[in-house]
Amino acid sequence: MALTNRYKTATGAGTIAALVLVLVFGSPWYADWARDETDPDTAGGWFLRLLAWPAWRFDSDDTIQNIIAADLKAILVVVLTWVFLYLLPGSQLARARGTLSQFLAGWSAYVFAGAFAALFATLIGSNPSLLGAFQAAGSGAGYGFFVGWIVGIATLGGWRGRR
Protein backbone atom coordinates (compact mmCIF):
# COMPACT_ATOMS: atom_id res chain seq x y z
CA MET A 1 0.00 0.00 0.00
CA ALA A 2 1.41 3.36 -0.98
CA LEU A 3 1.83 6.16 1.51
CA THR A 4 -0.94 8.67 1.26
CA ASN A 5 -1.14 12.35 2.15
CA ARG A 6 -2.28 11.22 5.56
CA TYR A 7 1.36 10.48 6.36
CA LYS A 8 2.92 13.46 4.58
CA THR A 9 4.22 16.28 6.73
CA ALA A 10 4.66 19.77 5.34
CA THR A 11 8.19 19.90 6.76
CA GLY A 12 9.21 16.56 5.26
CA ALA A 13 7.70 17.23 1.84
CA GLY A 14 9.29 20.67 1.60
CA THR A 15 12.68 19.34 2.68
CA ILE A 16 12.54 16.56 0.10
CA ALA A 17 11.64 19.11 -2.60
CA ALA A 18 14.61 21.26 -1.54
CA LEU A 19 16.90 18.22 -1.59
CA VAL A 20 15.80 17.27 -5.10
CA LEU A 21 16.23 20.85 -6.32
CA VAL A 22 19.76 21.04 -4.92
CA LEU A 23 20.81 17.53 -6.00
CA VAL A 24 19.48 17.77 -9.55
CA PHE A 25 19.82 21.42 -10.49
CA GLY A 26 22.89 22.13 -8.35
CA SER A 27 24.79 19.22 -9.86
CA PRO A 28 27.94 19.96 -11.87
CA TRP A 29 26.37 18.37 -14.94
CA TYR A 30 23.27 20.55 -14.89
CA ALA A 31 25.24 23.69 -13.99
CA ASP A 32 27.62 23.11 -16.93
CA TRP A 33 24.71 22.46 -19.28
CA ALA A 34 22.85 25.59 -18.14
CA ARG A 35 25.96 27.74 -18.49
CA ASP A 36 26.82 26.40 -21.97
CA GLU A 37 23.40 25.86 -23.54
CA THR A 38 21.13 28.63 -22.28
CA ASP A 39 20.90 32.30 -23.17
CA PRO A 40 21.10 34.51 -20.07
CA ASP A 41 19.35 37.32 -21.96
CA THR A 42 16.05 35.43 -22.10
CA ALA A 43 13.70 34.78 -19.20
CA GLY A 44 13.87 31.02 -19.68
CA GLY A 45 17.65 30.96 -19.90
CA TRP A 46 17.96 33.21 -16.86
CA PHE A 47 15.66 30.94 -14.83
CA LEU A 48 17.44 27.74 -15.92
CA ARG A 49 20.75 29.28 -14.84
CA LEU A 50 19.21 30.46 -11.57
CA LEU A 51 18.18 26.88 -10.75
CA ALA A 52 21.89 26.00 -10.61
CA TRP A 53 22.66 28.62 -7.94
CA PRO A 54 23.37 26.29 -4.99
CA ALA A 55 25.89 24.45 -7.15
CA TRP A 56 27.97 21.76 -5.54
CA ARG A 57 31.07 20.29 -7.11
CA PHE A 58 33.77 17.70 -6.64
CA ASP A 59 36.69 19.37 -8.32
CA SER A 60 37.59 22.76 -9.63
CA ASP A 61 40.49 25.08 -10.27
CA ASP A 62 39.28 27.07 -7.27
CA THR A 63 40.79 26.87 -3.78
CA ILE A 64 39.73 24.01 -1.51
CA GLN A 65 38.22 26.57 0.88
CA ASN A 66 35.93 27.92 -1.85
CA ILE A 67 34.94 24.41 -2.96
CA ILE A 68 34.01 23.52 0.62
CA ALA A 69 32.08 26.79 0.98
CA ALA A 70 30.11 26.08 -2.22
CA ASP A 71 29.33 22.53 -1.11
CA LEU A 72 28.39 23.76 2.35
CA LYS A 73 26.05 26.32 0.77
CA ALA A 74 24.21 23.53 -1.07
CA ILE A 75 23.95 21.45 2.10
CA LEU A 76 22.82 24.43 4.17
CA VAL A 77 20.04 25.26 1.71
CA VAL A 78 18.49 21.85 2.41
CA VAL A 79 19.15 21.82 6.17
CA LEU A 80 17.95 25.39 6.69
CA THR A 81 14.85 24.69 4.62
CA TRP A 82 14.00 21.95 7.10
CA VAL A 83 14.74 24.27 10.05
CA PHE A 84 12.60 27.12 8.74
CA LEU A 85 9.76 24.83 7.69
CA TYR A 86 9.76 23.41 11.19
CA LEU A 87 9.89 26.83 12.84
CA LEU A 88 7.54 28.84 10.62
CA PRO A 89 4.07 28.73 12.09
CA GLY A 90 2.07 29.18 8.88
CA SER A 91 1.89 25.52 7.94
CA GLN A 92 1.69 24.39 11.55
CA LEU A 93 -1.17 26.66 12.56
CA ALA A 94 -3.25 26.27 9.43
CA ARG A 95 -6.64 24.88 10.35
CA ALA A 96 -7.09 23.24 6.97
CA ARG A 97 -4.35 21.47 5.07
CA GLY A 98 -3.61 22.85 1.62
CA THR A 99 -4.22 26.47 2.53
CA LEU A 100 -2.39 29.51 1.27
CA SER A 101 -0.52 29.79 4.58
CA GLN A 102 1.15 26.42 3.96
CA PHE A 103 2.23 27.50 0.50
CA LEU A 104 3.62 30.82 1.75
CA ALA A 105 5.39 29.18 4.69
CA GLY A 106 7.14 26.75 2.34
CA TRP A 107 8.06 29.47 -0.09
CA SER A 108 9.36 31.81 2.59
CA ALA A 109 11.32 29.01 4.26
CA TYR A 110 13.23 28.54 0.99
CA VAL A 111 13.87 32.28 0.68
CA PHE A 112 15.30 32.38 4.20
CA ALA A 113 17.28 29.18 3.66
CA GLY A 114 18.88 30.53 0.48
CA ALA A 115 19.78 33.84 2.10
CA PHE A 116 21.28 32.36 5.26
CA ALA A 117 23.09 29.56 3.43
CA ALA A 118 24.77 32.10 1.15
CA LEU A 119 25.61 34.36 4.07
CA PHE A 120 27.25 31.58 6.10
CA ALA A 121 29.06 30.02 3.12
CA THR A 122 30.51 33.37 2.07
CA LEU A 123 31.86 34.00 5.54
CA ILE A 124 33.84 30.73 5.49
CA GLY A 125 35.12 31.11 1.92
CA SER A 126 38.47 32.62 1.06
CA ASN A 127 38.69 36.40 1.47
CA PRO A 128 35.40 36.80 3.34
CA SER A 129 33.96 40.26 3.78
CA LEU A 130 30.79 41.55 5.33
CA LEU A 131 29.82 43.29 2.10
CA GLY A 132 30.40 40.07 0.15
CA ALA A 133 28.29 38.15 2.66
CA PHE A 134 25.44 40.67 2.37
CA GLN A 135 25.58 40.55 -1.43
CA ALA A 136 25.59 36.75 -1.38
CA ALA A 137 22.61 36.74 1.00
CA GLY A 138 20.75 38.94 -1.48
CA SER A 139 21.54 36.47 -4.26
CA GLY A 140 20.40 33.58 -2.08
CA ALA A 141 17.16 35.34 -1.20
CA GLY A 142 16.58 36.06 -4.90
CA TYR A 143 17.13 32.40 -5.69
CA GLY A 144 14.70 31.41 -2.95
CA PHE A 145 12.11 33.91 -4.16
CA PHE A 146 12.10 32.67 -7.76
CA VAL A 147 12.49 28.94 -7.00
CA GLY A 148 10.85 28.64 -3.59
CA TRP A 149 7.34 28.37 -5.00
CA ILE A 150 8.26 24.77 -5.86
CA VAL A 151 8.91 24.07 -2.18
CA GLY A 152 5.71 25.94 -1.34
CA ILE A 153 3.69 23.67 -3.61
CA ALA A 154 5.36 20.59 -2.10
CA THR A 155 4.25 21.60 1.40
CA LEU A 156 0.58 21.89 0.43
CA GLY A 157 -1.62 19.31 2.05
CA GLY A 158 0.94 18.16 4.58
CA TRP A 159 0.32 17.67 8.24
CA ARG A 160 2.16 19.62 10.89
CA GLY A 161 4.20 16.57 11.83
CA ARG A 162 2.97 16.09 15.37
CA ARG A 163 -0.74 16.01 15.89
From TrEMBL:
Transmembrane segments: 12-31, 67-88, 100-121, 141-159
Keywords per UniProt: Membrane, Transmembrane, Transmembrane helix
Protein name: Uncharacterized protein
Organism of provenance: Plantactinospora endophytica
